[in-house]
Amino acid sequence: MPVESDDSPQLDVPVGTFEDIGDVKAQLAQLTALVETLTEGAIEEVGPTDTGDEAEEEEAQYPPFILLLDTPEYDDELRGLIEWVEGVLVPGYLAEPSADARWCHLWFEHTVAVARLHAAWLAWQELTDPASCGYTGPSVWHRDHLDPALRELRASTGPFAGCVKGEHRIEHRLPSVVPSAWTHVAD
């Protein structure tokens, strides 16, 4: 008598697990309906997305790291960064410079300062929007982004180490071309 082969995998899963998965699916459907009701259908259904042009558009929404930008884009991004630093950061967070907490009014000529401040600015844009990060975003921004950036920038060994009030002992120069290892090669 031939032995019938059962090719289906033997799963040692308790029967109750399948019921739990069904419960989770039902709860997810209820929560989705509730969210859609509360937002008046403003959210799109979560699911797989097209990998065509829409994916490329979505990717282009996010600003790239400033040091990777070429001249016209770099200048535009730097202009926005300068507005934020001079309009928000300097008046709100930077006390009088001292030997222990340096600051250079020509900070935008220090590549390291531009890079760190740009990163802090990008995080600020994301984490100060309650719609995307809730109400704890500003606290996270201070703890994880601003405080470490200012510690590094204003340290006695930071990019402003040669800059003292009224005197600059380093030669200020505009940021040079990004090292070739950072640039993207066109295929």
Mean pLDDT: 76
What is the strand tally? Answer: 2
Distance between the termini: 63 Å
Strand order of the largest sheet: 1-2
**Broad shape:** elongated
**From the structure provided, what is the oligomeric state, counting identical versus distinct chains?**
single chain
Please tally the helical runs, counting DSSP H or I stretches of 4 or more residues. 6
Helix fraction bin:
40-55%
How much β-strand is present in the residues? under 5%
Largest sheet: 2 strands, antiparallel
Which stretches are low in confidence, meaning pLDDT under 50 for 5 or more residues running? none
Structural class by secondary-structure content? mainly alpha
Order of helices and strands: HHHHHHEE
What's the structural blueprint in terms of helices and strands?
Blueprint: H1 15-38, H2 53-60, H3 71-93, H4 111-127, H5 130-133, H6 137-154, E1 163-164, E2 167-168
Antiparallel strand pairs: 1-2
